[in-house]
Specification:
The chain is mainly alpha-helical. It has three domains: about 10-105, Fumarase/aspartase (N-terminal domain) (Fumarase C, Chain B, domain 1); about 110-205 and about 215-360 and about 450-470, Fumarase C, Chain A, domain 2 (Up-down Bundle); about 370-425, Fumarase/aspartase (C-terminal domain) (Ribonucleotide Reductase Protein R1, domain 1, Orthogonal Bundle). It has helices spanning about 15-20, 25, 30-45, 50-70, 75, 85-95, 100, 110-145, 165-190, 210-215, 225-230, 235-260, 290-310, 325-350, 355-360, 370-375, 380-400, 410, 420-425, 430-435, 445-465, and strands at about 150-155, 160-165, 195, 220, 270, 350. Strands 1-2 form a two-stranded antiparallel ribbon. Bound molecules: arginine.
Length: about 475
């Protein structure tokens, strides 16, 4: 039975009928639809529309539907008659409890139902994603701890800049992850209002106590305006934009690993369990995992764009266009879940080639900044120090050697300030430790940073262990 056949005399065109349905994708909202329907039944009960026993019967039957179908979602998706998940649950309810089931739709509209279900879905996804971010962050942190005093060149313009601790580089990604987790949390807080009671557009036609469903579903408060509540998809766009930033971070990490795994860099040994071979070239071990991660941001950003354009210029309030925003949300969410999962396991399995990274730090004048800083400590203004070290670098370039290879006499041509302690000031360790500021790569600072990151990742892990009511 259709939900709205009363005023129609002609049947729907069969192809159009199939084409306009959302069940092929909104079956993913079964849990949410059941939760929201149960909450609505409670509100109807309080309003006296359902007796207590009717309310209980409906609520139990709804749970029964969830039990029966949560392991058979394929059957939900392929149901022959249902137009969408709301219709599906209504049909199944009537099958179970007859006409009593039809009472559930009193005082509500699918417009508020989908607004509610999608909020619940995004909220649960955010929870899951924050947990996965904690896992990936934890894997990076473990690598940072294991790296000890391993060093690597840092790059600006993809040219070697200064040596840094490998741990310092890894912790840069932990910072990005913590911001992503924060942005997701913000998004979750902003969406956490309950549309139930908004009706089709103008508010429920029953004096429902909206706080009942709000509380039952773990929302903070009822939404304040029924026209906004039934047409708002800001939370979907915000979610997708946050995922875009997250995917950008993953993409940058993936690109660095891809580069570092080349023979030219040789900093990283790709784990065999996460690499693939070439059908043509027997010697190859390819970084397919990081290449795919590098690319995923394309479709995730695509989803954000799609949802944004779907909403452009939409008049208030509900329009069927809104149905189109669901798939980008489902797809980008699921894609990000899978990507984070593979990234966490992959990150834990990476092996760094400390010898190669250290060797890369020992040539190419990565200690030039430290050398200039040495002169600054001798009272030379930085601009002058920069020039003197620049000339010394040029001198070495012509001799194919490094700053540490020339004698004090040779150095003195560039400035009388050079003394024997110069050589101790430009060792690899000194080059690291001269960055002795909060957030810098000095060894002691990185130890502090590891402790701080451990605390933050620990907090994040803890925050996702508390499960939302109704999520
Ligand atoms: N399947 C619909 C959607 O996802 C549910 C709301 C339908 N409302 C309506 N007035 N046709 O948007």
């Amino acid at each position: 039975m259709k939900m709205w056949s009363g005023r129609f005399r002609e049947p729907l065109d069969p192809f159009f009928d199939q084409w306009q349905r959302s069940l092929p994708f909104d079956w993913q909202l079964l849990t949410e639809e059941v939760a929201a329907s149960r909450a609505h039944a409670l509100a109807l009960q309080a309003a006296g529309v359902l007796t207590d026993s009717e309310g209980s019967e409906i609520r139990a039957a709804l749970l029964g539907i969830l039990d029966e179908y949560s392991g058979k979602l394929h059957d939900v998706a392929s149901h022959a008659d249902a137009e969408d998940i709301h219709h599906f649950v209504e049909l199944k309810l009537a099958e179970r409890i007859g006409d009593l089931g039809l009472k559930l739709h009193t005082g509500r509209s699918r417009n508020e139902q989908i607004a509610t279900d999608l909020r619940l879905h995004v909220r649960a996804r955010i929870h899951e994603l924050r947990r996965l971010l904690a896992d990936w962050g934890g894997a990076l942190l473990k690598q940072a701890k294991d790296a000890g005093e391993a060093v690597m060149p840092s790059y600006t313009h993809l040219q070697r800049a200064e040596p840094v601790l490998v741990a310092h580089w890894l912790l840069a990604y932990v910072q990005m992850i913590l911001r992503d987790a924060n942005r997701l949390e913000d998004c979750s807080k902003r969406l956490n209002f309950c549309p139930l009671g908004s009706g089709a557009i103008a508010g429920a036609t029953l004096a429902l106590d909206r706080n009942i469903a709000t509380k039952e579903l773990g929302f903070i408060a009822p939404t304040a305006n029924s026209m906004d509540a039934t047409s708002d998809r800001d939370f979907a766009i915000e979610f997708l934009q946050v995922l875009t930033i997250l995917a950008l971070h993953a993409s940058r990490f993936a690109e660095e690993i891809t580069l570092f795994a080349t023979a030219e860099f040789g900093f990283v040994d790709l784990p065999e369990a996460f690499s693939t071979g070439s059908s043509a070239m027997p010697q190859k071990k390819n970084p397919d995992l990081t290449e795919l991660v590098r690319a995923k941001v394309g479709r995730i950003h695509g989803a954000a764009e799609a949802a944004t354009l779907q909403l452009k210029g939409l008049p208030l309030a509900y329009n069927k266009d809104l149905q189109e925003t669901q798939e980008p949300v489902f797809q980008a969410g699921a894609e990000t879940v899978r990507m984070l999962r593979v990234l966490a396991d992959f990150t834990a399995a990476i092996r760094f080639r400390d010898d190669r990274m250290r060797a890369a730090c020992s040539e190419g004048f990565l200690n030039a900044m430290a050398a200039a800083t040495y002169l600054v400590h001798k009272g030379v203004p930085f601009r002058k120090a920069h020039e003197k070290i620049g000339s010394a670098v040029r001198y070495c370039l012509e001799r194919n050697c490094e700053l540490g290879d020339i004698t004090l006499e040779e150095l003195k041509q560039f400035g009388p300030e050079f003394e024997t302690d110069f050589f101790a000031a430009i060792t690899l360790e000194a080059t690291l430790d001269c960055h002795d500021v909060y957030g810098g790569t000095a060894r002691a600072r990185v130890q502090d940073a590891i402790a701080a990151a451990e605390q933050s990742i620990g907090n994040l892990t803890q925050s996702v262990e508390v499960v939302h009511a109704g999520a």
